[in-house]
């Protein structure tokens, strides 16, 4: 029986066959929750910041700690490709040098966009094809449509699950101590 990964990075490189069974995943989620609460103690959060995360996904993602907590939640559910893609797109838009832009666009396309990509995101065929055409001469905004789709998916699915999660409730509870 495979042992539980010690870090979320180890989870990233595991194939579906290598992932631990459901019962071990729950143990991992509990360890992750405890680690997050300890590492993100009330001193690292502004008073009431955690409560504000429930206002909107945009508010959550503006908070460095909120974004990290949401990403950890998604990793614990083996569904972190959307937040990773969204964050990479945010960084990608800041690139100013054409060579770096072209190189990074190709890597993003290969990792998240192309069919059968290692971290393929859930976008429609039309958007995938438009991005594929944009790869001829990438711009800082060539992934915008896919980023909007991914944000919408997170907002409608992952974010409400996060707000109902034991992890978020534990973060709220840790503020009362």
From TrEMBL:
Spans annotated as Disordered: 1-26
Biased composition (Basic and acidic residues): 7-26
InterPro entries in the record: RGS, RGS_sf, RGS_subdom1/3, RGS_subdomain_2
Domain of life, source organism: Eukaryota
The RGS domain, residue ranges: 56-172
Protein name in UniProt: Regulator of G-protein signaling 21
